[in-house]
Design a protein that fits this description.
Structural class: alpha/beta
Number of strands: 11
Strand content: 5-15%
Distance between the termini: 17 Å
CATH class of one domain: Alpha Beta
């Protein structure tokens, strides 16, 4: 692990190996316990009582042992939308090993598109006073940086425009409202104004890297007219990123789904790099943006890890490394996470093989 490797990657400088990060391995409690070489309880929120080591320290040991150079993190501020106003709870499928995260959806508080078009998140939820928000973000960043000194810790905002609208309205009402592009565009601009308050606050902190998360597409690609993104959504991003860029922050854009057709548009808006899933055309991304922009991802698919053979897994690693050997700005990650249904054996074979390839390069 090396924070320096992470920072050099973010600035597209040469690194002795590809930078590295993973997502959702925190669900693999027995694996973390084994790698960190401590006796810890299965409940991740409790202390490792027998050893006197608290869980954040266990996780830190794991990140270091697995050569994490970077930690993906966003923070949506200090207003709980669900308590401050109307939100739509669409429920949650099973993801954790024990199924404890599953819950049923609740009725949407919005009944007609007119209610959605009239919505203003600033009026509905309110905004944390600016200086208070800056101080809270700085405190959060400093605490994470102290907890994980060997990784680049980020700032960022999750529910930017589309993701914010999803949280407020749910998919059904969002898609109904999108039928009128003019009214829908005005609505998204109001979410952009809400997000801008947070982007400006993050710009005042000492972070070096900011993650702008927004789930703007599906696995099949855009669910809106492509030019609507270019005419309405991307200009919002351009405004969001102006204060961050002026403050010298690096902006990484992150979306679930297949977003590759828009990455050059997003780069033109000011994005310095991209965090994406393996459904995207990795070859195209490396060809068009490699070396000039940060690329966080790979050809490795968690579905291969969960349901495929080791030979298939190895082939995805090999294909990724063949494309990116010596490429500045490349950070290796399983872009659609490593969920709890991936076996510990596969996880260990994955990291051991990946590190062996780094050593032999």
């Amino acid at each position: 692990m090396s924070r320096q490797i992470g920072m050099d990657c973010i600035y597209c400088r040469p690194t002795p190996r590809p930078a590295h990060v993973e997502y959702s391995l925190e669900y693999h409690v027995p694996l973390i316990r084994k790698v960190a070489e401590v006796e810890a309880p299965d409940a991740v929120s409790k202390a490792a009582a027998d050893s006197g080591i608290h869980w954040p320290e266990v996780v830190r040991r794991f990140y270091d042992a697995w050569d994490y150079d970077f930690l993906w993190s966003t923070h949506d501020g200090f207003v709980d939308w669900a308590k401050a106003g109307r939100c739509t709870d669409m429920g949650h499928a099973v993801y954790a090993a024990d199924g404890g995260d599953q819950h049923a959806p609740r009725p949407c508080p919005f009944q007609e598109p007119e209610e959605v078009w009239a919505f203003d998140p600033v009026k509905e939820y309110g905004l944390t006073p600016f200086d208070e928000l800056v101080a809270g973000y700085e405190k959060n960043y400093q605490e994470r940086s102290r907890a994980f000194p060997n990784q680049v810790c980020t700032g960022g905002y999750y529910k930017t425009v589309i993701s914010g609208a999803i949280q407020s309205f749910g998919w059904d009402m969002l898609l109904l409202a999108a039928a009128d592009e003019v009214k829908f565009g005005r609505l998204l601009e109001r979410f952009g104004a809400y997000s801008l308050h947070h982007a400006r606050a993050w710009a005042e902190t000492s972070i070096a890297v900011y993650i702008q998360h927004d789930d703007i597409v599906w696995t099949s690609g855009p669910f809106l007219r492509p030019d609507f993104y270019r005419e309405v959504i991307f200009p919002i991003y351009r405004e969001l990123w102006k204060p961050l860029k002026a403050a010298g922050k690096k902006v990484l854009f992150c979306s679930d789904g297949t977003v590759d057709m828009f990455l050059e548009d997003l780069a033109a808006c000011g994005a310095d790099g991209f965090v994406f899933e393996p459904s995207n055309d990795f070859d195209k991304i490396v060809r068009t943006l490699g070396g000039s922009h940060v690329i966080v991802g790979s050809k490795v698919d968690c579905r291969t890890m969960a349901f495929g053979t080791w030979e298939q897994m190895q082939a995805e690693i090999d294909a990724t490394l063949a494309l990116t050997r010596g490429l500045p700005g490349f950070m290796f990650a399983v872009g659609n996470h490593i969920p709890a249904n991936v076996s510990d054996e596969m996880c260990l074979r994955y990291i051991e093989y990946l590190r062996a390839q780094w050593r032999s390069a």
